[in-house]
């Protein structure tokens, strides 16, 4: 999977394009991007802001905040396929994320 190019962020219900994420750099396993927001992204910015505030804690409150993001949005590869698993942070015009081509198995030991 090529990780450069333009990834996209979409509303989970309905698929509306919320932002283009234009890759600017990467430090495996993370990618960094410039956020080219669409009007619909404004609705979701508070979710990302809450997640960032709780990120250092890495506790149940952070997990709930991130679960809210995952329930609200999907990330797509540059070729348009949906990314099975991802951890995405968004702060203003900056985004950084890591991803997996395979879904995580929550029941795995």
Note down, in words, how this protein is organized:
This protein has 109 residues and is α+β, with helices and mostly antiparallel strands. It has one domain. 21% of the residues lie in helices and 39% in strands. Strands 4-1-2-3-6-5 form a six-stranded antiparallel beta sheet. A hairpin with a 5-residue loop joins strand 1 (6-11) and strand 2 (17-27). Helix 1 (45-54) packs antiparallel against helix 2. It starts with 5 loop residues before the first strand and ends in a 9-residue tail after the last strand. The model has no long low-confidence stretch (mean pLDDT 91).
Uncertain segments are none
Helix/sheet category: alpha+beta
Mean pLDDT: 91
* CA(first)-CA(last) distance: 27 Å
Instruction: Report the portion of residues in β strands.
Output: 35-45%
Please state the CA-atom Rg, rounded to the nearest Å: 13 Å
Which strand order does the major sheet show?
4-1-2-3-6-5
Count of separate DSSP helical elements: 2
* SSE sequence, one letter per element: EEEHHEEE
Total strand count, please?
6
How many strands, which pairing sense, and closed or not: the largest β-sheet? 6 strands, antiparallel
The helical percent reads: 10-25%
When the domains are counted, the total is 1
The outline comes out as: globular
